[in-house]
Amino acid sequence: MEQVRTSKKEAAIETLPSIYSLQLDELKTWLKENNEKAFRADQIFEWLYKQRVTSFEDMSNLSKSLRQLLADNFTITTLKTIIEQTSSDGTIKFLFELHDGYSIETVLMRHEYGNSVCVTTQVGCRIGCTFCASTLGGLKRNLEAGEIVAQVVKVQQALDQTDERVSSVVIMGIGEPFDNFNNMLSFLKIINHDQALNIGARHITVSTSGIVPKIYEFADQNMQINFAVSLHAPNTELRSRLMPINRAYKLPQLMEAIRYYVEKTGRRVSFEYGLFGNVNDQVEHAEELAKLVKGIKCHVNLIPVNYVPERDYVRTPKDQIFLFEKTLKNHGVNVTIRREQGSDIDAACGQLRAKERQEETR
């Protein structure tokens, strides 16, 4: 394991919005409102997302006055690397510092099919899942769309050194994406745009813990984005123990919303199911889970959990994981076991931040 640290310096507070938060049409509108030609937006996007410059001054085919206008109204969000951990399997976990001194995690995962980036949508989380380090210390604030975009740009800048590219994005980092819904949607549209990062919709996955009203809203967007739901339990009682959000949106309500999503979009949903030793990993749980998802166009992704020191859960033994998988398959459920990555670094979501930024996560 390789770990790179940089010293923490007091961060200057940025008050200007991130230009990464603007979609192309929004930038064109802003330019016209400021008596500039709309086509300049195409040039600005080229500099931001193809050339990946970090200063407006580097946008050499723009007039000096326009460059100054941009600098007076926007910032190009930069993320300061506090820690960079590299796993023996190639996974890289970044702890980034934001302009206000808060920190977030971003993960680069290497697969046979390409490079995937897991991004964060909030500083902390208010959902309170009992197995997750991300929720330690609660929610500090939402990220603006540009701060989420900047995570992908930052990783892409690192990959530029080896002529590689980010080929897929998962929104499964710190925070609940649907709790920051509008910024998340803007982020999706920006990274998907062919003049921005041009990441195909079917190579983007967003996950929610189950904010039911937003599932309906997301379904009505009718995007081709992959959709995952953190389920983790096959019944309401157990899910409420693991995930307090289930007290607000009961499992039957959640499943009804998921059925609406599948019917509205024609797309399947993925159920994320973390396996916790002697909690939700018995054969009877698998039987119950199979009954719960019956008739839904779906895929179940079994996740052998990473141990989190601040939590009491332990990993399910391998033979029990395979038995759980077999039980689901016997009931005709489409199921896989997630390949473990980054086990020799602080791989669990929020774990690196919890360890290094204790003042944020108390």
Automatic annotation (TrEMBL):
Domain Radical SAM core, chain residue ranges per copy: 111-344
Binding site for [4Fe-4S] cluster: 125, 129, 132
Record's cofactor remark: Binds 1 [4Fe-4S] cluster. The cluster is coordinated with 3 cysteines and an exchangeable S-adenosyl-L-methionine.
Source taxon at top rank: Bacteria
Cofactor: [4Fe-4S] cluster
Active site annotation, chain numbering: 105 (proton acceptor), 349 (s-methylcysteine intermediate)
PROSITE patterns in alphabetical order: RADICAL_SAM (PS51918)
Note: Reaction proceeds by a ping-pong mechanism involving intermediate methylation of a conserved cysteine residue.
HAMAP family reported in the protein's UniProt record: RNA_methyltr_RlmN
Protein name (record): Probable dual-specificity RNA methyltransferase RlmN
